[in-house]
Amino acid sequence: MATLTVIDAESAPKRVTATPAALLRRQAEYEGYLKAVKKGQVGRLSPTRGETARSLSSRVAWAGRRTGKAVDRWIVDDVLYFKVTD
Fold this sequence. Notes:
extended
């Protein structure tokens, strides 16, 4: 369960935003993952430090929406598996 701590706005760290170039690189990376998985294959993505399988799943889903591909996704033991169905 999450723990909530309330702090003053002045003591909060500055928000870090992704630059447009970094965002486009990440989008291209995940779109590339979808292209790499052919019919009859399943992709497997393992999260690295600071990531979760759930965040990987969201990125794969957004890549599918951007490219017009249907993607089945499931998580087992903190590893994301996905299959491109279109």
